[in-house]
Write a structure and sequence with these properties.
Elements: E1 17-20, H1 22-35, H2 53-61, E2 66-69, H3 72-81, E3 85-88, H4 95-106, E4 111-116, H5 119-132, E5 136-141, H6 156-164, E6 169-176, H7 186-208, E7 216-219, H8 225-228, E8 235-236, H9 246-251, E9 261-272, E10 275-278, E11 294-296, E12 303-307, E13 312-315, E14 327-332, H10 335-339, E15 344-349, E16 352-358
Parallel strand pairs: 1-15, 2-3, 3-4, 4-5, 5-6, 6-7, 7-8
Antiparallel strand pairs: 1-9, 9-10, 9-14, 10-13, 11-14, 12-13, 15-16
Length: 368
C-alpha cells in the first residue's frame, strides 16, 4: 500500500522536484482558521512561503482576505489572486516607490499598504504620492526585538508627527515581526512572545491615542503564533503553515499542521557499501539551515554527509537497498526558500500528478 506522499508512477517525473498535496494544504488552512476560532479577520498570512496564485486562492476560498508579502512581485501575485487587502512587509525605496504606486493603480480592487520606519521613507513616499495624486496606506514598523528593521519606541512620536503632516499618507496601524523567536522550549518562547507583544502594544496605544481612526496591530510569524493567536487585538501573520516543514515540526511541536510539500529525489551514484549520492543539492533545497536540511520520509536511517550544488551524499546501513534510480521522498528543514528554487511544482492527488502550478512570485518582477 502506498504511503500518502508516494506516487504510483514516477517514470515520467524529473528529479529533483517539489510535490504539493492540495488536500493537505486545504486542511492546514482550515486548521489555521480554527486556531483563531474562525475569526479570519485576525489572520494576515504571509505568502512568501507559497508564492503561488493557486494556493492564495485556496486561502481566499476559505474566507481569508488579508495577506502579507515581502516583494512587489508577491504583492502583484496577490492582486492577480483577487486578494482584498495586501500589506507589503517592506518599505519601498528608490525606483521601487514608482513600482509600488503603479501596482496600487493597476489593481484597484485590492487595498495595498506598506511599511515605514524612518523619516526619509515617509518623505519620499509622500512626495511621490502627492506628485501622482494617490493616497498611500502605511503601517509603522516597530522593532520588537529582532533588530532587523523597525523603529524603536523612542522614535514613534516624531514619526507620528511627520505622518500627520502628510495628507497623502494614511496610517493604518503598527507592524512588528518577531523572527528572532524560535526557541523549541515552549515556556521560553511564550516569554519572548509576550515581550514582543508588550513592545508593539506600547506603540499601538500611543498612536491610537493620537487619532480617531481605528488602527490595526499586525504581529508575529509562525513560532509566536502559538501565543499571539490568543490575543484578540492582534492580527497574526504565519506563513509556513500551508506546507509546513521539518524545522518547524521539530521546534514548534505544539502546532499540529501536516506536511503538504515533499521533495522527490533519486539515487544517482553508489559510492560504497554504506554511501550513496542523490540529486538533491542545495540548488534544489534551501541551504540556509545547517545540514542535514532535509528529513527523509522513507528511511530514518539515511544520514546526510555532504551537500554541494547538485549532489547530496548520504550514509546508509546497506547501499544495496538503494539501487540507481530509486526514488526517495524528503521534507525540507526550511520550506519557504526551497519553494523559491522551483519554477513549477507538481500537484498530487490520489498518488498521481494531477496538475502543475507556476511559482509565479519567485520572479523579482511579474508585470510591474
Amino acid at each position: 500500500m502506498l504511503k500518502w506522499y508516494q506516487l504510483a508512477d514516477v517514470s515520467s517525473i524529473e528529479s529533483p522536484t517539489l510535490l504539493l498535496y492540495p488536500e493537505r494544504i486545504r486542511k492546514n488552512i482550515q486548521l489555521l482558521i480554527d486556531m483563531v476560532e474562525g475569526q479570519c479577520e485576525r489572520l494576515r498570512p504571509h505568502v512568501k512561503t507559497n508564492k503561488m496564485v493557486e494556493v492564495c486562492k485556496m486561502m481566499i476560498e476559505e474566507g481569508i482576505t488579508q495577506f502579507k508579502c515581502s516583494t512587489i512581485a508577491e504583492a502583484e501575485m496577490l492582486g492577480l489572486s483577487g486578494a482584498g487587502d495586501v500589506l507589503l512587509a517592506y518599505q519601498p525605496v528608490a525606483t521601487n516607490i514608482s513600482r509600488w504606486v503603479k501596482l496600487i493603480e493597476s489593481y484597484p480592487n485590492t487595498h495595498f499598504s506598506c511599511l515605514v520606519d524612518n523619516t526619509r521613507s515617509v518623505e519620499e513616499l509622500s512626495v511621490y504620492a502627492e506628485d501622482k495624486g494617490i493616497k498611500i496606506s502605511v503601517y509603522l514598523d516597530i522593532d520588537v526585538g529582532m533588530g532587523r528593521t523597525g523603529t524603536p519606541f523612542s522614535e514613534v512620536p516624531k514619526l507620528k508627527k511627520i505622518l500627520s503632516e502628510k495628507e497623502m499618507l494614511i496610517l493604518e496601524g503598527v507592524h512588528g515581526y518577531d523572527g528572532h523567536i524560535s526557541n523549541p522550549v515552549l515556556a521560553i518562547r511564550q516569554e519572548e512572545s509576550d515581550l514582543s507583544y508588550k513592545i508593539l502594544k506600547k506603540a499601538y496605544n500611543y498612536l491610537q491615542g493620537q487619532t480617531k481612526d481605528e488602527l490595526k496591530m499586525v504581529l508575529g510569524g509562525s513560532p509566536s503564533f502559538s501565543f499571539h493567536r490568543h490575543r484578540p487585538d492582534v492580527v497574526c501573520s504565519p506563513g509556513t503553515f500551508v506546507f509546513w516543514d521539518w524545522g518547524y515540526r521539530e521546534r514548534i511541536a505544539e502546532q499540529p499542521f501536516e506536511y503538504a510539500a515533499v521533495l522527490m529525489t533519486r539515487v544517482i551514484s553508489i559510492i560504497s557499501d554504506t554511501r550513496i549520492c542523490v540529486d538533491l543539492g542545495y540548488k534544489a533545497v534551501a541551504s540556509d539551515p545547517p545540514l542535514p536540511r532535509v528529513f527523509f520520509l522513507d528511511d530514518k536511517d539515511l544520514k546526510v554527509v555532504l551537500q554541494s550544488e547538485e549532489h547530496l551524499l548520504l550514509s546508509v546501513p546497506d547501499s544495496s537497498k538503494y539501487p540507481i534510480g530509486r526514488e526517495l521522498y524528503a521534507v525540507p528543514t526550511h520550506i519557504c526558500p526551497t519553494v523559491n528554487l522551483y519554477d513549477k511544482v507538481n500537484v498530487i492527488g490520489e498518488h498521481c500528478v494531477i496538475d502543475s502550478w507556476e511559482v509565479i512570485a519567485r520572479k523579482r518582477k511579474i508585470n510591474i
